[in-house]
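Working notes for the structural subgroup meeting. M.R. asked for a predicted model of this chain before we commit to crystallization trials. I am recording the input and output together here so anyone reviewing the notebook later can reproduce the run.

Input as submitted:
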Amino acid sequence: MPIDTTHDPALRSWVDSANASDSDFPVQNLPFGVFLRGGAPRLGVAIGDRILDLVAARDAGCLEGITADLASALGAPRLNALFALGRPALCSLRGRLSALLRADTPEGARAQREPSLLVDRVGATLQLPTVIGDYTDFYASIDHATNVGSMFRPDNPLLPNYKHLPIGYHGRASSVVVSGTDVRRPHGQTSAAPAGPPSWGPSARMDYELEVGAIIGTGNTLGSRIPLAEAEAHIAGLVLVNDWSARDLQTWEYQPLGPFLAKNFATSISPWVVTLDALEPFRVPRRARAAEDPALLPYLVHESDVARGAFGITLEVWLRSAHMRAAGVPAVRLSQGEFARMYWTLAQMVAHHSSNGCDLRPGDLLASGTVSGPTRDARGCLLELAWRGTEPVALPGGEQRSFLADGDEVIVRGWCEATGRRRIGFGECRGTVLAAQA
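Returned structure, recorded in C-alpha cell form:
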C-alpha cells in the first residue's frame, strides 16, 4: 500500500492527547483492538488516551457508505471478520477513520458532537484482538540463534539448515493471553544431567522472550501456497509478543522434537493491532545476507522483500520486581533491540509456512522468535542477557536476576520513528509472574 494523506506528519486530531509527541496512538496510527463496553466485546481504534467505539461510530452514521460486509464485521466480537476482508478493505476503513478523527475535516467536526463515540482507554478492559485458531513461533533472529547455539554447541552455533529456511514450531493457541494477564510459573520435568533422571517441580529458570507477532488477514485455502510477493497482503497487522519460556523444562524435553511444555503454558500479546498500512513509512531493506551465505531457494526470494521487507521497529524490555514495587521504584530497562535486524522477514515466514499447502486463517498468530542484537544490551531474553545464569543482571536495590522471580513484572514496548514522519507505537505487553500452584 502506498504512503498517502493518512501518514501526513502534520495531521492533528480533535482528541488532544493524540497530538502529544510521545503518544503511541496519534491519528497517523489508528490500531485496531477489542474492549468491553456494557459487558459485551466491541471493536475499537486507539486514539491518544481514548478508544473510538467502531460500533457506536457506525450506528451514529459516521461511517456512511461503507460496504455491507464491512458494516457487519464492525459488529463482531473479535477482529477476525474484519481482517478476513483483506488489506484493501482495511486501507479504505483506515482512510474513513482518519477523516473522522482529524481536527480539520467536516467528518471530524461532526464526530466531536457525538460524545458516545469515545471511551477512556485507561479504564477500558481490553481483550484478545482476535480468536487465535493457530499460533506458530519462529526463530528468525540470527543473533539470538547464534548466542543460544554457542551456549550449547560452542563449535557449531548455527545448524546447517538455519540460513536456508525460517525455523519455527507450532505453539499452543489456547494459552495466548492479552497484556495484563498474570502468568503462573509452570511445573514440569527437569534434569541436571543430560541423561537424567528427571525430577518434577516448579520451573526454576523461567524466562521472557521479546518478539513481534503478525496477525493473519485473508489467509489461504488448504493445499494452496502464498507466494512471497503476495505474502504481506495476507498480514493484517503486528502486535508485541512475550513468549514466556521455562528454560529448565526446555533443556530436558526439546530433543528430539523441540519445544513443548516449556513454551505452551503462556504467551502474552499486546491488545492493539498496528496495521501494515500504518507501518508503511517505516519500511526498510531486509537485512543483507553475508557474501558467504548460501543462495536461497526461489520461493524465498523477491526483489520487493529485499528492498523493503523489514520494519524499523525499536523494541524494549523493562522489569519491575515485587521488591521494587513495594519500594516505589520504577521499572528498569533490561534491553533495547531493533526488529530490522531479523534474518528472516515476516513475508518469508508467511511464504514458507504455506509452502507445503498449510492453510493460514484470519486471526492466526505468527511470532518472530526472540529479537536480539549483536551487543549485550540488545539481547531479547534473560537466557542470553544473563548468559545461561553466569552473568546475573543487577536490579535497583541490590537484587540480581539470572531468570525471573515470582512477582516480577515484564513490560515489552515498541515504537517506530523516522525522519519526517510521526512517531507511532504499539503500546505495551505486560505480564506478572505468579508463584507456582501448590
